[in-house]
Automatic annotation (TrEMBL):
<dbReference type="InterPro" id="IPR043128">
    <property type="entry name" value="Rev_trsase/Diguanyl_cyclase"/>
</dbReference>
<feature type="transmembrane region" description="Helical">
    <location>
        <begin position="94"/>
        <end position="114"/>
    </location>
</feature>
<dbReference type="InterPro" id="IPR029787">
    <property type="entry name" value="Nucleotide_cyclase"/>
</dbReference>
<dbReference type="Pfam" id="PF00990">
    <property type="entry name" value="GGDEF"/>
</dbReference>
<keyword id="KW-0812">Transmembrane</keyword>
<feature type="transmembrane region" description="Helical">
    <location>
        <begin position="36"/>
        <end position="59"/>
    </location>
</feature>
<protein>
    <recommendedName>
        <fullName>diguanylate cyclase</fullName>
        <ecNumber>2.7.7.65</ecNumber>
    </recommendedName>
</protein>
<dbReference type="InterPro" id="IPR050469">
    <property type="entry name" value="Diguanylate_Cyclase"/>
</dbReference>
<dbReference type="GO" id="GO:0005886">
    <property type="term" value="C:plasma membrane"/>
</dbReference>
<dbReference type="GO" id="GO:0052621">
    <property type="term" value="F:diguanylate cyclase activity"/>
</dbReference>
<feature type="transmembrane region" description="Helical">
    <location>
        <begin position="145"/>
        <end position="164"/>
    </location>
</feature>
<feature type="transmembrane region" description="Helical">
    <location>
        <begin position="171"/>
        <end position="191"/>
    </location>
</feature>
<dbReference type="GO" id="GO:1902201">
    <property type="term" value="P:negative regulation of bacterial-type flagellum-dependent cell motility"/>
</dbReference>
<feature type="domain" description="GGDEF">
    <location>
        <begin position="255"/>
        <end position="393"/>
    </location>
</feature>
<keyword id="KW-0472">Membrane</keyword>
<dbReference type="GO" id="GO:0043709">
    <property type="term" value="P:cell adhesion involved in single-species biofilm formation"/>
</dbReference>
<keyword id="KW-1133">Transmembrane helix</keyword>
Length: 396
């Protein structure tokens, strides 16, 4: 979703929901408002039924009829409400359930009042205000349909009042004067509630976008902090973390790990003759060989620093470490990167490797392992380069 669209919608006073977000808006409101709508409907029905007590007090002549009508009303609307809240997916329909039932309740109530001969009817009609207030307070999502239903409820109330005060226009006028502010107040409330609902939703979309962007930026930063900028493989920081993990696992499983330190041979001469940029390209190609060389098993390749790389594998034994070191030296040599100025008779870029194992004598931690690999690398260099040394038994 386009962030600008959401911001534009929020900038408009009516905060319209962009079409692309409507389905999500409905789902959001269903989750937010379903419980409220259910409670409002149940409370409304409970209040409607409880007015039977008032009828027995002030309109005893229609109290029985009222009790029957209200009971029938409840018998229909209660299961209907529960079923609608359970099965109806559309939050718009659920939102309109309460005003619709209130319209029905209004019609029934005025019909009952019209049958009563009690003088209290003239004042009791003012209780009808509760219908319009409740209808509008219960609205969460759609103001316009709520407005339509409010007008219908008001028409039903006015029709009932006119019927009861057929010969008393002054009483009708007083009722209307009292009723109108109540109607406007409750309409304002439902307009404000629905507008706030849209705004809250649009803000939640923006918050979600912000969180997502932050998450992505964090992931990117994390990757950058762990990756070597030149070669794209793991950097020293990540290598150190992984070395400790490899070490811990080796101790837990009792199976040794191997650490291979890989150093380019005569790389200073390469840089001096082919230039620093060519030196960088050479490092990138060697890094690719190391990182792509083995895909299965616990294998980890990183740039250790400068023209030095490191590879870890687990579990590892001297023979396996030797075999991997041999394959790696061979693979780099086979890249065939021309190096005519190394001065030892060879004419391509090669590497020397020192490989130590966690099971070697005197190795008690990652630092010892690195020290041993370094010492073996030094031996490999001294033995003429383009080769490897593995402890405890030199293989070449
Ligand atoms: N192009 C390039 N060169 C680098 C980079 N990091 C280190 N080097 C170079 O690698 C060279 C390493 O040189 P030395 O440590 O003298 O080792 P060597 O010439 O490879 O000799 P031996 O290791 O004994 O075979 C130096 O010239 C560094 O400048 C890098 O990121 N890019």
């Amino acid at each position: 979703m386009n962030r600008e669209l959401v911001e534009q919608a929020l900038a408009r006073w009516s905060a319209p929901i962009p079409p692309a977000l409507r389905a999500d808006f409905d789902a959001y409101h269903r989750a937010q408002s379903l419980r409220f709508l259910l409670l409002m409907n149940l409370l409304g029905q409970a209040a409607y039924v409880s007015y039977v007590a008032a009828d027995y007090l002030v309109l005893p002549d229609i109290a029985h009829e009222s009790a029957r009508a209200r009971s029938i009303f409840l018998a229909i609307t209660l299961p209907l409400t529960l079923a609608a809240m359970r099965w109806v997916r559309s939050i718009h329909l659920l939102d309109m359930l309460l005003p619709t039932l209130i319209l029905l309740a209004t019609l029934i109530w005025f019909d009952l009042l019209a049958r009563s001969q009690m003088p209290a009817v003239a004042t009791y009609i003012y209780a009808s205000m509760i219908f319009i207030v409740l209808a509008n307070l219960g609205v969460r999502v759609d103001f316009l349909p709520a407005l339509g239903l409010s007008l219908l409820i008001s028409a039903a109330i006015l029709h009932g009042v006119l019927r009861l005060h057929r010969d008393d226009p002054q009483a009708v006028m007083v009722f209307v004067l009292v009723y109108l502010p109540m109607l406007l107040f409750s309409l304002f409330t439902s307009w404000h509630t629905t507008l706030s609902g849209r705004r809250a939703y649009l803000h939640s979309v923006l918050d979600g976008m912000n969180r997502q962007a932050l998450l992505q930026a964090n992931e990117k930063l994390h990757a950058l902090a762990q990756t070597d900028g030149l070669t794209g493989i793991a950097n020293r920081r990540q290598f150190d973390e992984q070395a400790q993990l490899f070490w811990d696992k080796a101790r837990q499983t009792g199976k040794p790990m191997a650490l291979l330190i890989i150093d380019l041979d005569h790389f200073k001469a390469y840089n001096d003759h082919y230039g620093h940029q060519a030196g960088d390209d050479c490092l990138v190609r060697v890094a690719r060989v190391l990182s792509e060389h083995m895909r299965e098993g616990d294998y980890f390749a990183g740039r250790y620093g400068g023209e030095e790389f490191a590879v870890m594998l687990a579990p590892a034994w001297p023979a396996l470490a030797g075999a991997v070191a041999q394959r790696l030296t061979q693979a780099v040599r086979q890249l065939g990167i021309a190096h005519a100025h190394r001065g030892d008779g060879l004419s391509v870029v090669t590497v020397s490797i020192g490989a130590a194992l966690s099971s070697d004598d005197g190795v008690h931690g990652v630092t010892d392992l690195i020290r041993c690999s370094d010492a073996l690398l030094y031996e490999a260099k001294r033995s003429g380069r383009n080769g490897y040394k593995v402890a405890p038994r030199p293989l070449s």
